[in-house]
Write the structure tokens for this entry.
Amino acid sequence: MRAQSHEQRPSFFLGTLLQDVSYALRQLRKNRGFTVTAVLTLALGIGANAAIFTLVNAILLKNLPVVDPSTLIRIGNTNECCVNYGTAEDSGAVDDGSYALFDTDTWQQLQKNAPEFEELAAMQSGLGTVIARSDKTQEAARSVTGEFVSGNYFRTFGLQPSVGRLFTDADNVIGAPLVAVMSYNTWQNNYAGDPSIVGSTFWINTKAVTITGIVPKDFFGDRLSSSPPDFYLPIESVPVLTSRTFVHEPGMRWLYIIGRVKPGVAMAPLQAKITELVRQSLAPTKPFSGEQGKRALAKFQTFDEQIADSFTEDRMITHLMTLFSILALLLANLGLYGVTAYTVARRTSEIGIRMTLGANRCSVVSMIMRGAMLQTAISLGAAEYR
């Protein structure tokens, strides 16, 4: 008898499943308004997720034009912004030793004293706004975004220009001719990819600036933003273009630093060395000269091995896929919750009758949940079909 009951179980479960499917279809057919709403809601959810994935794929998941991103290290591990003297309280180093903003002198000292890096580039921590117009097209002046970067910025990432040339160290010295590099998006969207834009003059904040080149098509800046800067400008042009003198003021924290580590360099000794160099550079400055600043500086940490991974495509894909999995799970749970809540509310009287006739609570809940899940699955299939 026991063997017979085991043989009968598959057919029993199959019969129950068929009954549930039949019941779910009847409920969907009976409540057409609910069915249409559920299908449209799920279709919108699927469409939104597809649109988001398309955007992310276009911006992030395609191969980045950066050479060997696993060897890139960011000095600092927070996202502070933007330009200020700051105090020990807002330095970010008080509680846990994290820090990200540096003055120009600290960057230059690291360049001199850290040969473990092939390149060590600096960039403005927050994108600025400049007024620009093309002398060639006689367009009206407009407000655009600009980012001030070091002369080796593009070389650090291993980039090649779409047209023209990118910055060199000679572009980022005091008194050098004013130059700029244009983003690929700006070049295409505003100037139809006209190659003669390279070499032409733009008036940026009323100063004549020569466009030397166009960045690669898929380069979205050091922050991988979907809206990269319209123009990249040398750090040493800040005083000329903005009339601000903070570039070489001690303790003026305004730069992010990213470096490319040479092959074979051990991370632990490098971290210890960079930490000590930064402490020596920051110690005399105003934010860290007081007692609280000294305590903060003693806990200062520059980076760890994990930071190198933050620039790799694999890590981004992992995070994005996790996000999409959570979104999909959330969508399914919301759909199931909505169907279940609607079913319970609509069938209150039916549930009462079943309970009165002797149905136990577990069987009623099981029936509702199975029906809700099947209705959700059927609605989801219909939404995908649409």
